[in-house]
Design a protein that fits this description.
10 strands, oxidoreductase activity, acting on paired donors, with incorporation or reduction of molecular oxygen, two-stranded antiparallel ribbon, four-stranded mixed beta sheet, 14 helices, Cytochrome p450
Length: 460
């Protein structure tokens, strides 16, 4: 008697499903081009499990700005062209406003979070509430005093702990969100339990929503498999991660908004350590406009275009969410002769050398002059009905933190004990939400009066 394994049974069942799908759901138009897969499993074996956006960038050189793959019957459309992104995600109303069902995230409770919630009345209700508070650039004015104070507190933390940049920057963004949303003041010394909770939550969310990380996301019926069964380790992991999600529900924290500011601030110090000319240009502009007798404020923004360009380049260079959570097509769509079937997952990522010259280089000058390259803020906060409701808050928070850091610090490469210069590497962590991997650099006050200026600003 032949003993069939769990995997054998799974493949047989899905072969039948795919045959049924082929007979009953065919489309006259072809899917967007992409790498050839295998029967039944499609592109499962060739689908990248780590930093997929890098592989997608290579694929786009061959297949173009829109391509597709198939993972065990699930169509995934990948876009690397700004105009196609706008056409498909930005101009189609609710057609691509849904999120795919992500069974692993649901098992952990993350379907309760706005960023991964399915499109429907609950999502629209949450969006409307957030839009009333954060929905316009004008609404940010009332939050600027909080943002300015927390950015100045960041300077103080760096001055107090110059060698602990990786620990200081998460505290800053978390402090703003907690202060703004709940009136909660974080601990002035050491770590704060709510900020630590946010960091833990982001790490876990990034793992469970990473494309290709869990087979249950393309075989949702696996959720019925007992946790003791071989191959069901995801269920045991889900129980562990559910605890964190439940803690966020009982200890309220707007953790998603926090992460963009966290990552961008950290990337700023990495960029300046690697590109000293950028720092020199920023310092020259800051001294010319603001001088050395005070710290910059929001009132200086229009007069600091190079600092603004640095902020744009930080959003583009090492994006916080290179792929983000995918969209889902709620009906069949035709685009330029290609079929995007109902239920398709749609990802966008934009690192196209046809759009940005030398895209892996950090170069704020690309946004200066009469013919600047495309502003990454046009797409990095999402599209259509899924655009980030906290986009204006993130933009203003990033700007004030970067502007004050330009005014206050010199950032240089570290010299090791052997006398050799240590060159940081511009690499990111894994997952849906990423940040630069830990690195070391030297951060020192630009001039002796910086500590006094910081203390005076906090006292005022």
């Amino acid at each position: 008697m032949i003993a069939l394994s769990f995997v054998d049974v799974s493949l047989v069942l899905f072969a039948g499903y795919l045959l049924w799908q082929a007979l009953n759901g065919s489309h006259n138009l072809p899917l967007p081009p992409g790498p050839k897969g295998y029967p039944v499993i499609g592109n499962l074996l060739g689908f990248p499990s780590t930093q997929p956006w890098r592989v997608f960038a290579e694929w786009s050189q061959k297949w173009g700005g829109i391509m597709s793959v198939n993972i065990i019957g699930q169509t995934m459309v990948i876009i690397n062209d700004p105009q196609i992104v706008v056409d498909i995600l930005g101009k189609t109303g609710s057609t691509f406003a849904d999120r795919p069902p992500l069974p692993m995230a649901t098992l952990c409770g993350w379907d309760r979070v706005l960023s991964s919630a399915r499109y429907g009345p609950r999502f629209l209700r949450y969006r409307k509430l957030m839009g009333r508070v954060f929905g316009t650039r004008g609404s940010m004015v009332k939050f600027q005093p909080m943002e300015d104070y927390q950015a100045t507190m960041f300077l103080k933390r760096v001055l107090d702990s110059p060698g602990q940049l990786d620990q200081v920057h998460p505290t800053t963004a978390g402090a703003l969100i907690l202060d703004l949303t709940y009136g909660y003041n974080i601990r002035k010394e050491g770590s704060d339990p709510l900020v630590d909770l946010a960091e833990k939550a982001v790490a876990e969310f990034s793992i469970i929503t990473n494309p290709g990380a869990f087979l249950i996301d393309v075989l949702p019926w696996l959720k019925y498999v007992p946790s003791w069964m071989p191959g069901a380790g995801f269920k045991r992991l889900a129980r562990k991660y559910t605890k964190t999600c439940d803690d966020l529900a009982t200890v309220p924290l707007a953790w998603v908004q926090d992460q963009m500011t966290v990552s961008v601030i950290y990337a700023y110090f990495l960029a300046l350590a690697l590109y000293p000319k950028v720092e020199a240009n920023a310092h020259a502009e800051m001294d010319r406009v603001v001088g050395r007798d005070r710290l910059p404020t929001f009132e200086d923004r229009d007069q600091l275009p190079y600092v603004d360009a640095i902020c744009k380049e930080l959003l583009r260079w090492l994006p916080v969410a290179p792929l983000a959570v995918p969209h889902r097509a709620t009906r069949d769509v035709t685009y330029k002769g290609y079929s995007i079937p109902e239920g398709s997952w749609v990802w966008k990522f934009l690192h196209d050398p046809n759009i940005y010259k030398e895209p892996m280089e950090f170069n704020p000058d690309r946004f200066m002059g009469l013919n600047p390259e495309q502003d990454p803020k046009d797409y990095c906060f999402g599209f259509g009905r899924r655009v980030c409701p906290g986009a204006y808050l993130a933009d203003s928070s990033i700007w004030i933190n970067i502007a004050k850091s330009v005014a206050a610090f010199n950032v240089t490469k570290t010299v090791g004990p052997d006398g050799q210069v240590i060159v940081p590497v511009a690499e990111t962590t894994e997952g849906v939400v990423v940040r630069p991997k830990p690195f070391i650099c030297d951060v020192k006050p630009r001039f002796p009066s910086i500590p006094d200026l910081v203390h005076k600003a906090l006292a005022d």
